[in-house]
């Protein structure tokens, strides 16, 4: 299957969901007008890292985000990997990704499992406890969030369960841009899968973010890479390439998981 994917590398208005909802809708409509099949947004794109105000500005059970994204997906006939948003549930606030298919149905959801202490996430957020697997047009996919890419065993758990495309939403800071590139390329090579990684642009009171969203193919080649600024980055993926790379070097059948602990 061949799909055009657009990564919406947005700047994010700090702690201002209304401004961010309007900006995301504009960019989604712009990408759809360019004939995309699927868009992805960055991490925490409704609030940014305004963690001390999350109790006030997090989206109750993700409902506002779900209503907007489901409606846009259905109206525009595209898949929307709606990045992640701070979602308020009875047991706390999560950093959650919601995925909608072309008919506007919720195809999957994932709450960030590894909370990033360096940016105080563990003080304000509850971790998820389940994998982020979903299918789009029959293709097996997984959603992951930012710091998750430092955990190869967690990424492998998804590809060993069948995922052939990884959608990663991030707010990755500029000082570790070299890690972002190396980790993403490594996850693509070792898992022989597409990596679609959408970072944010701009800065907040504590960090400058790296941009450099990218699509990487199952051989580890960077198909396209954004600049540091706001940008819609689009590229085409062909899932046949996953089959070809996995047939040439059969990593999945050569694994010895019984010895890996
Ligand atoms: O792992 C890193 O260096 C960045 C992670 C991060 O910024 C995040 O998970 O929000």
Automatic annotation (TrEMBL):
Span of domain CN hydrolase: 3-239
Gene Ontology MF: a single term: hydrolase activity
Pfam family, one: CN_hydrolase
Lineage top rank: taxon: Bacteria
Keyword RNA-binding applies: no
TM region positions: none
InterPro entries for the chain: C-N_Hydrolase, C-N_Hydrolase_sf, UPF0012_CS
Annotated keywords: Hydrolase
Family: Belongs to the carbon-nitrogen hydrolase superfamily. NIT1/NIT2 family.
Protein name (database record): Hydrolase
Source species taxonomy: Bacteria, Bacillati, Bacillota, Bacilli, Bacillales
């Amino acid at each position: 299957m061949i799909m055009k994917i657009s990564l919406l590398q947005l700047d994010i208005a700090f702690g201002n969901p209304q401004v961010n909802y309007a900006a995301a809708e504009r960019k989604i409509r712009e990408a759809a007008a360019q004939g995309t099949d699927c868009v992805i947004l960055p991490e925490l794109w409704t609030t940014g890292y305004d963690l001390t105000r999350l109790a006030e500005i997090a989206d109750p059970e993700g409902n506002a985000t779900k209503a907007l994204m489901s409606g846009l997906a259905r109206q525009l006939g595209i898949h929307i990997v709606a990045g992640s948003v701070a979602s308020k549930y009875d047991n706390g606030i999560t950093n959650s990704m919601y995925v909608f298919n072309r008919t506007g149905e919720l195809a999957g959801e994932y709450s960030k499992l590894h909370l990033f202490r360096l940016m105080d996430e563990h003080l304000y957020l509850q971790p998820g406890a389940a994998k982020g697997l979903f299918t789009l047009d029959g293709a097996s996919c997984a959603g992951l969030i930012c710091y998750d890419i430092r955990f190869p065993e967690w990424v492998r758990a998804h590809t060993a369960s069948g995922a052939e495309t990884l959608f990663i939403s991030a707010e990755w800071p500029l000082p570790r841009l070299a890690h972002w590139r190396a980790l993403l390329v490594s996850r693509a090579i070792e898992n022989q899968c597409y990596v679609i990684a959408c970072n944010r642009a701009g800065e907040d009171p504590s960090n400058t973010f790296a941009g450099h969203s990218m699509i990487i193919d199952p051989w580890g080649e960077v198909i396209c890479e954004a600049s540091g600024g706001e940008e819609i980055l689009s590229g085409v993926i062909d899932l046949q390439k996953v089959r070809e790379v996995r047939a040439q070097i059969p990593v999945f059948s050569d694994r010895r998981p019984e010895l890996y602990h």
